Structures are given as structure tokens and as C-alpha cells.
Amino acid sequence: MKYLVVGAGFAGAVYARELAEAGHEVDVIDSRYHIGGNAYDYVNGKGIRIHKYGPHIFHTSNMKVVEWLSKFTDWVEHKHKVLAKHTDGNFYVLPPNRDTVERIGKDNIIDVFFRPYTKKMWDKEIEELNPKILERVPIRDDDNELYFPNDDFQKMPAEGYTALFMRIFDHENITVKLNCTFDKTMEDDYDHVFNSMPIDQYYDYEFGELPYRSIKFETFTLPERQVYKAATTNFTTYDGPTRVTEWKNFPNHGDNPLATTLTYEYPCDYKDNNMERYYPVKDIEGVNAEIYEKYLTLENPKVTFIGRCGTYQYLDMHQVINQSLISVRKFLGN
Ligand code: UDP
């Protein structure tokens, strides 16, 4: 069979590789100039690895996902820690642990660490959002300092994400075409299409638009060895960036003693950022989920929608890989 995969991010990569290994011919297209979707990384002129679309920190307890990825990458240990820089000038462990709670006071935790950040991130109050979003950062009463305390496997691809994607796509049955925008007439040339584009855009917004948050990134290189202690530092202010990543604080991201590169994040509506869709918006009433459900009712036997934008879910990398592995294997009858 001949298949088209639209989007060279994690969902597309898993589909392409599994279909190719099953003996099918796979074309992968992406409108961007690079593979890897939002996990794409590159090394800058100072020898420091940057994730172009913000920090991607791999963590999971799903060993099937780890096993699959390990065919294409070695790993380097990274147990992620996040500090919040507060307006009092001090740094606090996030998610709030016993020390954070003691120093800030239990009753102030939400107003200090969650209310302003969430307003900047989503342009919504906490009460307007599905609680699952904040449950990603659970407050705790122990001394654990990890951002993902419950995940068994916390490592980064040793040579970065782009190198990992290159190996996934390196198969004789896979052809990757970059700078190539999908158009529906392409479907005629294939037996089936796996499409990670936004489902509302595919259907010309027939049932309305699905909102997304986006991020504008500001990246600076300073002539200093190190500015922040943590790889990511969040800010508790209502204005300004949500967080900053100091790239060399991740392992294998460059160790130039004379320079450090920092990326600050400024969330915005995707329409204010060249239609770059990063985060599906889970509102408390489920209005957006209802719109998405309407698109699902449209019969389209030739197309399967995949990934964050195709399925309108706020998914981490390991979740995208897991879902994609399960569904492509089902498609293949395995
Ligand atoms: N959050 C917050 N303060 C923080 C960190 C996170 O209020 O310092 C909230 C915010 O609403 C955010 C959500 O928790 O969107 C999930 O945070 P996470 O760090 O998981 O977001 P991601 O890394 O996916 O952007």
C-alpha cells in the first residue's frame, strides 16, 4: 500500500516507521523546513543545543514507549527540576513541595504560583480551565524536588531530538518531503492518509474554530557561564514571560564556559503567532471538546487524524508516541 503521513512530528514519525516496517511505501510531508515537529532542536553558533519550540523534557513510566524509542537513540539521564522566581527575589521549588509551602504559606500557594502563571499562559482564570491542566503540577507535602516525581524513566535523547527523528525516518520505504504544504488533492495518490494537521482547518472550519495557545520565544546569548540554577525557571508575575530555559543546564546541550543561551516564553493566541498551534485549550465547560466531537462525526474513510492538532488533545511526547503506536498497530491488524 501507499500511505501519506502529514506532519513529521512524533505522531507522524511513529506512523511512518511502523507502516514502513510492515512493508508499505510511505511519503511524509511537512510544511516546515525541518523534521521533528515541535520537538525539533539544533545547535547554535556557541555549541549550545536549543529546542526551537520550547523545552521538551522526556519522561514516562511507559516502558513500551521507551523500548520503541531506544531503537533510535541512546539516552542521557535528566531528572527535571523547576524553580519559580518570585517577586520577593527568592527561588522556590515547583511543583510546590514542603519547603515551598512552608516558606510561602499554604493559603498563598495558588495565588503566588498558579494564578498569575495560568493567566499569562491561557489568558484565562484557573476556574475557567479544566482542572486536568493544573493537575499536571500537583502540590505535595514531601521534600521531593522533581518536576515529574512519578515517572520511572527521565532521560533525554543523547544527541538531541532531531538526530532521533533522522533515525526514525531513515528507512528505505520512507520518503520525507519538507517545505511541502498538504492539499486535499494529494489524497488521490494514496491508499490512506494519516494527517496531523488541525482537524478544524482540514474541514474549512465548518463547525467553528478550535482555539489554541501559542508561544513567542525570545532567545538571547550572554557572555556568562551560567545565569540560572535550573534548566527552566518559572516567573510568578502577571506580566512578562511565563518561564525561561537555560539550555546548557540540560545534559549534552553544550558546555561553552564563555556563553550561555536563554529562551524566554511569552504565550499568546495562535492567531497572533503565524497560526502556530501549540496547546489545545481545555475549557471547564468542554465547549471546545464539543466542537472537536462534531468534526469527528464527519465520515472520512480515507483519513485518520493523528497527534496533538489532529486529535485536539494536550498530550506529552510519551502519550503521543503511545497513542500512535497503539493505533497504527491496530490499523495494521497487529
Ligand atoms: N502552572 C502554573 N504555574 C507554574 C507551572 C504551571 O500555574 O509555575 C499551570 C499552568 O496553568 C500550566 C499548567 O500548570 O499551563 C501545566 O504546566 P506544565 O509545566 O505542565 O506545562 P507545559 O510544560 O506543558 O507548558
Structure overview:
Helix 1 runs parallel beside helix 9. The two termini are 16 Å apart. The model has no long low-confidence stretch (mean pLDDT 97). Helix 1 links the parallel strand 1 and strand 2. This protein is an alpha/beta fold. The chain has two domains: 178 residues, 3-Layer(aba) Sandwich (Rossmann fold), CATH 3.40.50; 129 residues, no CATH class. The chain contains nine helices and 16 strands. The strands form four sheets. The chain has a seven-stranded mixed beta sheet with strand order 7-6-12-13-14-11-15. Helices cover 25% and strands 22% of the residues. It binds uridine-5'-diphosphate (UDP). Uridine-5'-diphosphate binds next to helix 4.
Ranges where pLDDT stays below 50 over 5 or more residues in a row are none
Q: Which range best describes the helical content: under 10%, 10-25%, 25-40%, 40-55%, 55-70% or over 70%? A: 10-25%
Biggest beta sheet summary: 7 strands, mixed
* CATH topology (level 3) name of the largest domain: Rossmann fold
In terms of structural class, how would the helical and strand content be classed? alpha/beta
CATH class assignment of the largest domain: Alpha Beta
- Average per-residue pLDDT, rounded, comes to 97
Series of secondary-structure elements, N-terminal to C-terminal:
EHEEEHEEEHHEHEEHEEEEEHEHH
Task: Please summarize what this structure is.
With 334 residues, this protein is an alpha/beta fold.
